Amino acid sequence: MKNPFVYGKIVGKENFANRRKELELVKNAILSGQNVIIYSPRRYGKSSLVYNAIQELDVVSIWIDCYGIISKKELAEKIATEVVRNWKAKKIVEVIKGLFRNVRPKIRLSEDVEVEFSLEEEDKAFEESLELPQKLAKRLKKRVVVVFDEFQEVAELEEDVLPKMRATFQRHTDVCYVFVGSKRGMMEKIFRSTLSPFYNFGMHVTLNKIPREEFKEFIRKKFENSGIKINDDAIDKILDVTECHPYYTQMICHRLWFNAFVGNKSVSVDDVVRTIEEIIHEEADAYVTIWDELTLSQRKVLVALSKGETDLYSAEFLQKYGFKRASNVQVAVKGLLRKEIINKVKDKYVVSDPFFKLWILRRHTSS
Ligand SMILES: Nc1ncnc2c1ncn2[C@@H]1O[C@H](COP(=O)(O)OP(=O)(O)OP(=O)(O)O)[C@@H](O)[C@H]1O
Ligand SMILES: [Mg+2]
Hints:
Layout: H1 20-31, E1 36-39, H2 46-55, E2 60-65, H3 72-85, H4 92-99, E3 106-109, E4 113-116, H5 122-140, E5 144-149, H6 161-169, E6 175-181, H7 184-192, E7 203-206, H8 212-225, E8 229-230, H9 232-242, H10 246-262, E9 266-267, H11 269-292, H12 296-306, H13 315-320, H14 326-338, E10 342-345, E11 348-351, H15 354-364
Parallel strand pairs: 1-6, 1-7, 2-5, 5-6, 8-9
Antiparallel strand pairs: 3-4, 10-11
Helix pairs in contact: 1-2, 3-5, 8-9, 9-11, 11-15, 12-14
This protein binds adenosine-5'-triphosphate and magnesium ion.
Adenosine-5'-triphosphate (ATP) binds at residues 6-11, 16-17, 19, 40, 42-48, 182, 210, 246-247, 250.
């Protein structure tokens, strides 16, 4: 039997808890031709949300994973390849040649078609590729949705990239653009700064954790429907620890389910406690490595946040944690945010990994 808990990849609707409100928001925006900007900390379910919204619509989607892209040429190739794959023509080579005016792409036809440009033609190829989604929409007579996942990576490319993208996209009447990102600072710089070409380019959607009651229901059903017993206390214990973080919740449930499946077909609070210990034990080396690379101030802030401190800049806090100035706390917070060890959620800082938080607390709770 397949484990009903899935983590570490985009999940389809059978593994996707609730988020009805956000799904409707994204779907309505796409249908009304509005661009969408989605950000949240890592592994909150951004990609899955967009994926599921698109699945529920009658649109053509082009998914561009920007992670690891290091040049305009690569970005152009990804866009061109995806568009061509959706073109649905018999004589694909001729179609591709006809699509480009000033560049001569190489076409690789292995399992699936791939478009490649030469480095000399990079700029032209980039400009022409940006036009392709609109051409595809016209050809298929359907709305096209282009998703740029991990979009913040694109902002690190050459200076002309964002202005060119913006200038082109705003002319596209039959294409809706969805920008997904996990680095809040970068995404805000791109979409909220008045100096940025993408300023106010779409509707902002912030993704939060999954509401507790809905997640409880999701977990209960998944266990029950696969023949594993679990009581409310055990589910509560899971969510207390993971704080309803989608990824970590699915991760621990995946382990609990497996152990129950090969064992006595039930999950108790004790099983949850034991599994938490196992995870912390297995991850300990990784946590030590992260910890060792932090400055003393960063460690202090991390301990404080793990203990639930919220007012990081008060005189009382500074004294309690041995900071001379609030600016020292600020620098530490910035460093932790950059490393994504902490996130800002609803104006509060939180430790990203709930199991790392537990590991920290174990070491720093007197009594
Ligand atoms: N609505 C949901 N219900 C249940 N689990 C979810 C949901 N959304 C996400 N998850 C869990 O979180 C994991 C990460 O989801 P996803 O890859 O969509 O997040 P992301 O925010 O795009 O992550 P990243 O920052 O790594 O790109 C999934 O593999 C799944 O385990
Ligand atoms: Mg993602």
